[in-house]
Amino acid sequence: MRAKELARIVLSDSSLRKVHRKYPFRITDHIARLIHSLDDPIARQFIPSELELEEDGGVEDPLGEESLSPVPHLVHRYPDRVLWLITSRCAARCRFCTRKRLWKRRVSLTEENISRALNYIRQRRGIRDVLISGGDPLLVDEELLERVLHSLRAIKHVAIVRIGTRLPLSDPERVTREKILLLSRYQPLYVNIHVNHPRELSDSTRRVLEEMASAAIPLGSQTVLLRGINDDTETLRGLFLELLRHRVRPYYLLQMDLMRGTAHFRTPLSRGLEIMKGLRHTLSGLAIPHFIVDLPRGGGKVGLVPSAVESLRDGEVLLRNRQGGLSSYPLEVGEFDRLMKLLL
Ligand SMILES: *Cc1c(COP(=O)(O)O)cnc(C)c1O
Ligand code: SF4
Fold it and tell me: Given this model, what pLDDT does residue 126 score?
């Protein structure tokens, strides 16, 4: 199928047209070609649903990013890192997006916004890591992107730059050789791709990943845990193994944020932990991402790990082992209370 045909199908439904007016439908030919049926794991990420208009207890800005923005489009939540949203455009729109609030707002790099963001970073020596995201930063005009990277690199205390993108998956043809070379000139620069299902790893996507890795760009991935789409251990195991094969290190598995109108995508916390437990011992640590909950109202990211602790007594802790039995590990004298606090 082509994007146009899909749009015709979606927009011929009056209730979906209503969703589209609030949160515009947008897809690429590349994604459309990966869709086999309207309820497959690719389609469900991109085709609107009436449920998006539900008042489901979610909020517009679940991470409280607006109140953490000292200058426009720069989110400063942690002392050593900033998140710079340099565009609100995306090649294809994920229906579960946390930043849907920006879809109809034009976030773009005006001269004023660029210099305010750069000045802010320049004046704070504690900022050692700039994460460029959006929208999709790889859709930004190359000259402008180069200017941003160049200016960041001129700031001595900025040790690393990271780019978060979905373009290698949503429209790989647009990740051109030139763009990859541009990125590779600003090392150390990490690229994190947003990928949710093994079927997103098409041949052309794999080629782009290959090219980026060969240009010595370290690659990582972020995966959103999505109900009925990828919330089973085998699907994710397959995804993480394939990513590693393409030199992409799985970085984060993300619990859905409490974004308004996305409750139908959300899994309970226990699901994510069950999956993490299922991956333990059966996959190399290299293939296992951190399971992360980004706490409401700017509380920040926390990692959740299924506990291996079975019981704690004086002198030893009992841990569930690889074979399902119990292994004892000795405690130091007086350690009990300290360990108890750390584990709970
Ligand atoms: C996620 C995020 C970061 C980066 O977090 P890491 O755990 O270092 O990947 C930085 N700033 C904000 C506001 C974020 O949401
Ligand atoms: S790629 Fe990211 S920013 Fe763009 S629509 Fe999807 S989740 Fe939102």
Answer: 98
Tokens 């960041």 identify what position? Answer: 152
CATH code of domain 58-304? 3.20.20.70
Ligand 2 atom showing the smallest separation from residue 133 Cα: 3
Q: 8: which residues sit within 8 A by CB, 6+ positions away?
A: none
Active site residue ranges: 77-78, 81, 90, 94, 97, 99, 257, 294, 301
- pLDDT digit string (tens) for 84-135? 999 999 999 999 999 999 998 877 788 899 999 999 999 999 999 999 998 9
Q: What angle do CA 207, 29, 206 make, to 5 degrees?
A: 10
- Segment 311-315 mean pLDDT: 90
Pocket mutation for ligand 2, best pick of 194, 221, 225, 294 (most atoms within 8 Å of C-beta): 194
Residues belonging to the chain: 344
Digit-coded pLDDT (tens) for 215-254:
999 999 999 999 999 999 999 999 999 999 999 999 999 9
Residue type, 39: D
How do beta strands 189-194 and 160-165 pair? parallel
Ligand 1 atom nearest the C-alpha of 68 is 13
Question: CATH 3.20.20.70 occupies which residues in the chain?
Answer: 58-304
294 CA to centre of ligand 1 in angstroms = 9
Query: CA-CA distance, 41 to 299, in Å (whole number)?
Result: 31
Portion of the chain with pLDDT greater than 70, in percent: 100
Q: What distance in Å separates the CA atoms of residue 271 and residue 306, rounded to the nearest whole number? A: 11
